[in-house]
Specification:
Elements lengths: L13 E4 L4 E4 L5 E2 L2 H7 L1 E3 L14 E3 L2 E13 L17 E5 L5 E4 L4 E11 L4 E7 L1 H4 L3 E4 L8 E10 L5 E4 L3 E9 L28
Amino acid sequence: MVADYRPKLASGVKIRYTNKYRTISEGKKMGILADTQIQELVKIVPFEQAVKRPGKISYGVSSYGYDVRVGPGFKIFTNVNSEVVDPKNFSPRSFVDVDAGTAGHILIPPNSFALCETVEYFEIPRDMLAICVGKSTYARCGIIVNVTPLEPEWKGRITIEISNTTPLPAKIYANEGIAQIIFLRGEKTCRTSYADKSGKYQDQPGLTLPRVD
């Protein structure tokens, strides 16, 4: 008698076997959005297709995500005023405002960071959560991108933190790709969305510093 080593699945879960792989289907809508779904279900303005842009860091919709661009306005962290970094009372004197509109790029000092916002405006559907990951081109240079998850029914331009982890100045190119957004669709619609609780960073006007209400 041959032992059955197939996994035991919960009731209602269907499994199909073939010679080379198996596929598990739960009949639920949870999953990562593909390019066609992103264009159909998520409001992104302006929306760009995935095309070759020689000499530029890529942006636009991808197979299972959307590559956003960084806008020309930056706030670069500085310690010249010897302020305390306090998330509950963050001093604007800790930043220097830089417009990259003319030069097309900015320089982040060694072991420092900058705040910026995306060119694109987003409206996240109520049954979705979006996460952000940095682009490989910058990651391979020691430049790290950080964004907290975009909650259901959040809207606005995304504030991005770019960290230069190297001991050298780092160049960031305005109006080119900076990070990829991945959209996760839940099995059910959430009970309370970001809009329901009047989130403090909802539709934020320009680069908004950290605050606690």
